[in-house]
Write a structure and sequence with these properties.
392 residues; Dihydrodipicolinate Reductase, domain 2; seven-stranded parallel sheet; 13 helices; 16 strands; 34% helix
């Protein structure tokens, strides 16, 4: 295999999610190579150690904002740029990737940023490339799975559920942090978009709690509305007259603790002198609470992900129902959250780079569920070792 036959993927952000993206691309294809970019030399060193074929990995100690000439050159030479850094960098990185004429995808995480990225649709078409923000587990994978029956059914409702949970739950909340606490609290406390009766509506975070006892994971769980997993789902389904909601799965009682803390002001974002021993120094309750949660809910690396995409509709005039259930556990080098976030993102990146003959991607700016084939994604996840997927 010559260098010209190699698809070089530029992964910006050498954290654990970026490492999982790289592992999929290196281990599922023999004609790929990875360029990691990160501002931390230690992070880059750890990223290399997590890969099985280090000969196909290069590292670059660079900042990402503003985008410098060295990073622009890497972008121009890449088969696809994959952003695994915080969402505040994604718009600038997307713009530079489009200017370089290179496909781009990211982990999403912010509705406003994604909306701005999607406004680059005309520029993408002019550059003859595709970009796809909002990959990962939710909003990415779950919304893709919901489209499994869309070619044959007239949809009436879509209900998505997803939870990252510890395999060994402890404490009153039965939870361990599997990603950044600020992102978690944003998902919990922000308003949520849903579709009802063909209309886009906004409901409060952590509202509309329900109990679930028939998931792929035995036991009873609770699920409640959160803002993190919708992407364009509510808007697109509302335009089609389809009901849509996304909910987070937790052990029973978790929601009540968070709501009680919320009501008592633990997540206020304005500084207060009432929580400081030094009256001249004010503290922000959100910052203090987040730090305490990080200290007291650390992950032991032994997590699981449980999820469901449930669809109701009609086929040839008759009512139909379908469910895709997913469960995955920490394996080898990666947690379940890293696997179910990084691997779907890598599949989208490979599609954007033209590596799947059965998954052509037209130029433009779209989120993954608007163009990815659910059957291909499921097959690729199974090929990578995520076997806990059932369709009924």
């Amino acid at each position: 295999m010559s260098a010209s036959d190699t698809n070089r993927f530029l992964i910006i952000g050498a954290g654990r999610q970026g490492c999982a993206v790289a592992a999929f691309l290196l281990e599922q294809f023999d004609n790929t190579a990875i360029d990691f970019v990160d501002i931390s030399a230690d992070q880059l060193s750890q990223a290399v150690k997590l890969q099985k074929d280090v000969a196909r990995v290069a590292t670059h100690e660079l900042g990402v904002s503003p985008v410098g000439d060295a990073l622009k050159t890497l972008m121009a030479d890449a088969a696809c740029v994959v952003s695994c850094v915080p969402y505040r960098f994604n718009l600038e990185l997307t713009q530079e990737s489009v200017a370089a004429g290179t496909p781009f995808c990211d982990l999403g995480g912010n509705v406003g940023t994604v909306a701005a990225q999607l406004e680059l649709d005309a520029a993408c078409k002019s550059a003859n490339i595709a970009i796809a923000p909002d990959c990962g587990l939710a909003p990415g994978l779950l919304n893709i799975l919901a489209e499994y029956w869309s070619a044959d059914w007239d949809y009436k409702s879509v209900r998505l559920y997803c939870g990252g949970l510890p395999q060994n739950p402890k404490g009153v909340m039965n939870y361990a942090l599997t990603f950044n606490v600020c992102g978690l609290l944003n998902e919990y406390l922000d308003d949520c978009e849903v579709s009802r009766g063909g209309k886009l509506e906004v409901i409060s975070g952590m509202s509309e709690s329900e109990r679930l006892n028939d998931l792929a994971l035995p036991g009873e769980f609770e699920a409640f509305a959160t803002s993190g997993g919708t992407s364009r789902g509510a808007k697109d389904y509302a335009a089609k007259g389809v009901d849509y909601i996304y909910k987070t799965i937790r052990h029973p009682g978790h929601r009540d603790v968070i709501v009680a803390m919320w009501e008592m002001g633990f997540f206020d974002t304005k500084a207060s002198s009432h929580i400081s021993a030094n009256e001249s120094h004010e503290l922000v309750p959100w910052d203090v609470s987040g730090s305490i949660m990080e200290m007291n809910m650390p992950s032991d690396g032994q997590d699981l992900v449980v999820a469901r995409a449930a669809v109701e509709g009609t086929k040839d005039g008759a009512p139909v129902k379908g469910e895709i259930n997913l469960i995955d556990y920490a394996v080898d080098r990666f947690t379940a959250m890293e696997r179910t976030t990084g691997f779907p993102t890598a599949i989208v990146a490979a599609a954007l780079a033209g590596m799947y003959e059965k998954q052509p991607v037209e130029p433009g700016a779209r989120v993954p569920f608007q163009f990815m084939d659910p059957k291909l994604v499921i097959d690729e996840l199974i090929r990578s070792g995520i076997n806990g997927i059932s369709i009924r």
